[in-house]
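Batch job 17 of 40 flagged for manual review because the log was empty.
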Amino acid sequence: MHVCVLGQGYVGLPLALRAAEAGHQVVGYEPDTTRRTRLADADSYVEDISSERLADALATGNYRPTGDPDQVKGFDVAVITVPTPLTDRAPDLTCVRDAAELLATRLEPGATVVLESTTYPGTTRDTLVPILEAGSGLTAGRDFHVGFSPERIDPGNETWRLENTPKVVAGLTDGCLRRVKEFYGTVVEHTVPASGLEEAELAKVFENTYRHVNIALVNELAKLGHLLGIDVGNALDCAATKPFGFHRFTPGPGVGGHCLPIDPVYLSHHVRRRLGETFRFVELAQEVNERQPAYVVERLQSALNDRGQCLKGARVLALGLAYKAGTSDTRESPARHVIELLSRRGATVTVVDPHAPYESGLRVHRQLRAGQLRDCDAVLVLTDHPEFDHDLIHAHAPYVFDTRRALSAGDRVEHL
């Protein structure tokens, strides 16, 4: 098939390369000039995609990055994998609309358009379809096919990848579903048909809402456990031995990435707008998790006070900038919020992260050294990257506040 994937980020690039490896002729549409240049030079900026794999796809001729909208013409399948951010705390579908308008004037009878971008229920039917029909003069479900298939990319996960993670698929009509299922059946091992577009859209935002709510619950538990003098980590260890009815979540400095800070808001906003109702669990979870970086700073300030030192002027060594261990992904990272709050309160913050790119205004180092540990007043573990040498930290750090419970607790190591 002639396939076009709009957006070559964390979701679009893996899909485009997998489709190319399956034998499809793939155009990766990317409007960002810097990204396009790197793609053409076989220089991958997505951690799960090696530059070698990108080079192989380019060499076959099956994958071609472009920023020219006319190169999209003649597609059999177009997949939209563009960002769906928040603007003023509300869903922003600008990129989806722009992608739909680009495709609409190039849409031919028999083609299939699939939305993968995470959004609220009803987006495919109420936003995507009207734009495609208006721009093409064709009728969805009769002249062309429309579907929704939520992305399930987990950056850094070497076990569950695009090809072996079950892929939920949905279509505007039964015929649309067949076409969508046919395409994804060539790039993934297992597809899961949903009963409708809205069911598939809801499934995606609920998957992330489930995690969001449970992380907020355990973050609250950690706060209360600290006040009660209870070792919450040990309590969670004990609870996790139950072989049924319990799934472990671990406290942390907050939530990051696109899935948790943003996606559940799409659901709660949609419920409020359409029904006039509040999704109280989601809104409470949002409040708790957004408050977590400030709580981390308060705990660190209290710990320094107990040691006779002020936070203002303190030298803090922050370990980790990415939101997730083993990745370079800093999108919505709570670590960044913690570091910003510390700086505002007068602390001097040095950041060590073996994965994250250089961040303007931050002192970012790739490697953790004994001298850095000895010269600081406090070490703050924000991301539990496997490259961090725990023995080195224990040997040289004067005090450690570990928000990820990565190190063994002790006289100089305190857990969140």
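Reviewer: the log was empty due to a logging misconfiguration, but the result itself is present. The two ends are 51 Å apart (CA to CA). Unflagging and moving on to job 18.
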